[in-house]
Write a sequence for this structure.
């Protein structure tokens, strides 16, 4: 395991970006008839509601098997891909890309970079990454600050500019070199001329011309947007070599491609499946993948922002995030099956966090093996306080159950409108036990609650700070802890049992594949992506369900080379 | 000796005689069947719209006055502070605003927002299409922004005191097609956007020339890009062109005569301090003719609480419970559980009192905003005279989550709006409410989101 700490960037220990935790779903209820699965839903924009398709079986809310071409026909079907809007850089992509471009030791402070809107915990919904005057102003100011800092830093300045600024040819050379990296393709001469011309006209002095160039290039639409025109601007198209290099570097490293990567692509390095595989393998062995996907795990599992109840808890809650980062790092980047993290029998904690958990003191590297009989035994991530602690003030039974369903099974529950209007009347006079009982027995509520409450009950002894508290006794609710979407017998009497059940469900790796798809592609998969998703899932399994194997599968899918713009909405 | 580079911090700039053209038409909101019959060009009188969102509804039975004139001596419990109130914490004492407010009772938002805690749908009159949390049509503020803008440099301000960027929780303003408006979540950032470094410049500023040159370059560059793109991407890139155009207007703005640049707000803070700072800055922005349309989200559904305030006494004190938990009285797992051991009648009385206490707090914050507008003089009266100020929430009955009987307050005199009364709009949809508001601004709509505007509003 790499000894490099993957502590988050920037000063705030709470994470790269400001965020909220999981929204409280409050009290959930459902009708007998759940909305249909993906088939009937137009999915032009992000945020498809995935719900259990039908009443039976381990209903997967995911795209695979939801209709369209049968899986066995995927082998012969022409590759296709769902529509993606013209994508703006996410805040994370902006940070990582500018770090490279400006040879910064760390990514720049995220505080003044436009935030991404969030859905399902993910900040990668391209649909919602809009441009506005506020955003452009922020990009301009940020670029100015970065340029100023660069020019004041002799070493970085030489590295980035690459020539003596006093030399008459340096500016144009710089524009061409830096512009190629910023635009992720070589600039045309007229572009170089336009930029150098404007710099000469508007910059304050000779040195400022370089700052002007940096600001212009980093505020340009061709930097801020990931342009994918391919071989035709409308309809399904095949990415150009440069575009593919970009897509690959953003997919695995969350940043624009290097000059070497662009040049290699232009020389055909990615033209074949073997070529792309080689490039992907190399990139996945590089820690830049780990850096980028550390945020994936935080977004996927929902621990980007925790809510320490008191000021004194802030430090230990930050340690909780690092605990989860480290366990995931171990299972994601070794040769383990990544889902083994669900049932790990050890963790990595700071001494303070160990005390907080009531665990023995950790070894020098932070490792603690759970003592036999410890409530966290063999439960891996599922007893991490980062995941179990309350991120809002709602009902933890429903929240945790819903979180598990959404995170590992890609199930999304929606309250039918009619029921939402009457919830209050149904529960008058009931205490907490009575409410939980009622919502698990009334037919209109139980259809959903009976799929989530038994899970939440299973976590019932873990309090709002995510710590096991023997005085919290979920048996008072009279509901057996269970994972209802698993084949029977699906009850469990410890979280370790839940881990085992979860790990046995084929829907879990499918869901993880879909979330990786979302993180990389900026949208949830739609019907038309189902061959891609099933292909990715198969390759993921064939690779022993390693995380690099999953990412390899995502970028090696034939659809990765394609782009489809959205249908145009007539005015 | 090398000349120092001027600061790149934006500052109020001398008005240029020539506005650089945007090169691309502003996309107006798509209205299809809701196209107003006659969009009245804005008269010389300015008109303003300000929406304040506060989550978790209220207790409608203790909020709704009977229809007719508001009686200062017989106001429902939640509304008594419309008669004025004492200072608390960072908020000054409030004068009576009763004669400036109209209460609208009974509106039905359930056809728009089909889920229980969805701030993102609060200012929408249309039900979601692709999902239930992004409005398919522009929210009310966005609809009004183009009509009310005049020549203000900021088309609208979308402010939020919650750091959450969750699409449903942290956003209340949406453009067409479910596109979230860009939100300012930091009063310092708003201050910087509006007033820059705070100093006025005389004469041409080298930084301005440089910035204009830079914007011109990226505009030209984007035009080259546009030529390569397909239709959908060109449409998307319009956001970039519009951003340049809007930013140019903002950069060229000079706060009007009589505009006092306020002190820079502190950074950080909770929902309360941020909201106060936002209100103060936004009112100043209106006074300075920097904008005519503002939305402010006080909090998301979960966050706001009252630990630094004394709301309620004794057992009725709201303590450290979140507004969300307090809104759920006795019959939800998400509730203040300190009443669990009590006799139900007693517990209910306390729970009710707590909701009244928080509702009164919300009304006092609305009153602060209304008073702030009223305290700004204009040549013809006050800012409030030219404005409509809307109070809105995502739920009606906070306890049950019902989206009927929504808490709606409207203050101001725009379009001759009559205040000091309560209007019974039982069963009228949000479309009917919004249509009536829009009508006040001289924009005739006989049908908005499938509804006729509430008559007599």
């Amino acid at each position: 395991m790499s000894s490099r700490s993957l502590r988050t960037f920037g000063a705030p220990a709470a994470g790269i970006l400001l965020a909220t935790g999981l929204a409280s779903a409050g009290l959930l209820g459902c009708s007998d008839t759940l909305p249909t699965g993906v088939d009937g839903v137009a999915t032009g924009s992000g945020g498809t509601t995935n719900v259990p398709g039908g009443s039976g079986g381990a209903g997967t809310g995911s795209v695979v098997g939801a209709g369209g071409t049968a899986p066995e026909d995927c082998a012969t079907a022409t590759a296709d891909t769902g529509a993606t809007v013209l994508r703006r850089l996410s805040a994370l992509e902006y940070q990582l890309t500018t770090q490279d471009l400006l040879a910064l030791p760390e990514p720049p402070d995220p505080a003044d970079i436009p935030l991404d809107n969030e859905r399902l915990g993910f900040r990668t919904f391209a649909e919602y990454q809009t441009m506005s005057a506020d955003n452009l102003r922020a990009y301009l100011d940020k670029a100015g600050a970065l340029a100023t800092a660069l020019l004041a830093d002799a070493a970085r300045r030489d590295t980035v500019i690459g020539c003596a600024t006093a030399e008459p040819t340096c500016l144009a050379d710089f524009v061409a070199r830096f512009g190629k990296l910023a635009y992720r393709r070589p600039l045309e001469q007229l572009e170089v001329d336009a930029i150098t011309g404007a710099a000469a006209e508007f910059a304050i002095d000779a040195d400022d011309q370089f700052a002007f160039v940096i600001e212009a290039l980093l505020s340009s639409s061709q930097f801020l947007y990931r342009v994918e025109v391919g071989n035709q601007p409308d309809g399904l198209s095949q990415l150009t070599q440069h575009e593919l290099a970009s897509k690959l570097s953003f997919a695995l490293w969350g940043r624009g491609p290097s000059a070497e990567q662009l040049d290699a692509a232009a020389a055909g390095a990615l033209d074949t499946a073997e070529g792309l595989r080689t490039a992907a393998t190399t990139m996945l062995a590089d820690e830049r993948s780990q850096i980028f996907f550390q945020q994936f795990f935080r977004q996927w599992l929902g621990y980007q922002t925790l809510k320490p109840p008191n000021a004194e808890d802030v430090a230990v809650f930050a340690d909780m995030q690092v605990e989860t980062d480290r366990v995931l790092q171990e299972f994601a980047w070794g040769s383990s099956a990544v889902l083994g993290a669900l049932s790990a029998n050890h963790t990595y904690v700071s001494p303070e966090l160990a005390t907080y958990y009531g665990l023995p003191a950790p070894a020098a590297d932070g490792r603690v093996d759970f003592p036999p009989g410890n409530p966290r035994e063999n439960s891996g991530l599922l007893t991490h306080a980062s995941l179990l602690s309350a991120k809002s003030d709602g009902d933890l039974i429903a929240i945790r159950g819903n979180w598990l369903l959404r995170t590992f099974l890609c199930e999304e529950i929606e309250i039918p409108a009619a029921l939402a209007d009457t919830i209050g009347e149904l529960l008058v006079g009931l205490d907490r036990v009575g409410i939980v009982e009622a919502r698990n027995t009334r037919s209109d509520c139980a259809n959903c609650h009976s799929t989530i409450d038994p899970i939440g009950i299973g976590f019932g002894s873990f309090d709002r700070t995510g710590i096991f508290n023997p005085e919290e006794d979920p048996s008072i609710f009279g509901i057996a802890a269970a994972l209802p979407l698993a084949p029977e017998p699906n009850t469990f009497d410890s979280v370790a049992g839940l881990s085992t059940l979860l790990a046995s469900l084929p829907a879990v790796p499918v869901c993880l594949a879909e979330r990786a798809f979302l993180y990389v592609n900026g949208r949830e998969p739609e019907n038309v992506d189902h061959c891609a998703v099933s292909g990715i899932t198969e390759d993921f399994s064939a690779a022993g369900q390693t995380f690099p194997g999953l990412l390899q599968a995502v970028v090696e899918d034939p659809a990765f080379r394609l782009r489809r713009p959205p249908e145009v909405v007539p005015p | 000796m090398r000349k120092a580079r001027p600061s790149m911090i934006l500052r109020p700039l001398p008005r240029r005689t020539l506005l650089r053209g945007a090169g691309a038409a502003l996309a107006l909101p798509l209205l299809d069947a809701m196209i107003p019959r006659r969009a009245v060009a804005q008269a010389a009188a300015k008109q303003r719209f300000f929406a304040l969102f506060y989550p978790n509804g209220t207790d409608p039975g203790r909020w709704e006055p009977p229809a007719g004139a508001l009686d200062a001596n017989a106001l429902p419990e939640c509304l008594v502070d419309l008669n004025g109130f004492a200072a608390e914490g960072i908020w000054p004492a409030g004068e009576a605003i009763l004669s400036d407010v109209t209460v609208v009772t009974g509106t039905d938002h359930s056809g728009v927002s089909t889920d229980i805690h969805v701030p993102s749908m609060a200012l929408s009159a249309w039900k979601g299409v692709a999902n239930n949390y992004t409005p398919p049509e522009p929210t009310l503020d966005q609809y009004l922004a183009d009509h009310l803008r005049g020549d203000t440099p900021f088309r609208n301000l979308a402010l939020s005191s919650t750091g959450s960027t969750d699409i449903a929780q942290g956003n209340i303003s949406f453009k067409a097609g479910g596109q979230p408006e860009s939100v300012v979540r930091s009063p310092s950032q708003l201050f910087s956007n509006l007033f820059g470094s705070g100093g006025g410049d005389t004469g041409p500023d080298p930084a301005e020339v440089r910035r204009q040159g830079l914007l011109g370059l990226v505009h030209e560059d984007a035009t080259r890009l546009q030529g390569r793109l397909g239709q959908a991407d060109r449409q998307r890139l319009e956001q970039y062109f519009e951003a340049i155009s809007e930013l140019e207007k903002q950069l060229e703005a000079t706060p009007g005569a009589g505009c006092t640049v306020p002190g820079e707000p502190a950074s950080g803070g909770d929902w309360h301090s941020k909201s106060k700072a936002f209100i103060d800055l936004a009112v100043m922005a209106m006074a300075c003719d920097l904008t005519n349309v503002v939305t402010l989200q006080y909090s998301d559904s979960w966050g706001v609480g009252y630990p630094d305030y004394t709301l309620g006494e004794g057992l009725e004190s709201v303590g450290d419970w979140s507004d969300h938990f307090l809104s759920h009285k006795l019959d939800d797992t998400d509730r203040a559980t300190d009443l669990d051991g009590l006799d139900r009648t007693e517990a209910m009385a306390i729970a009710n009192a707590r909701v009244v206490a928080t509702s009164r707090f919300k009304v006092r914050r609305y009153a602060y905003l209304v008073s702030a507008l009223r305290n700004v003089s204009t040549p013809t009266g006050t800012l409030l005279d030219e404005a409509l100020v809307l109070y809105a929430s995502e739920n009606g009955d906070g306890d049950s989550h019902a989206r009927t009987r929504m808490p709606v307050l409207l203050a101001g005199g725009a379009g001759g709006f009559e205040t000091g009364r309560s209007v019974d709009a039982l069963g009228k949809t949000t479309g009917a409410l919004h249509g009536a508001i829009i009508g006040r601004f001289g924009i005739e709509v006989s049908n908005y989101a499938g509804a006729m505007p509430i008559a007599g509003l």
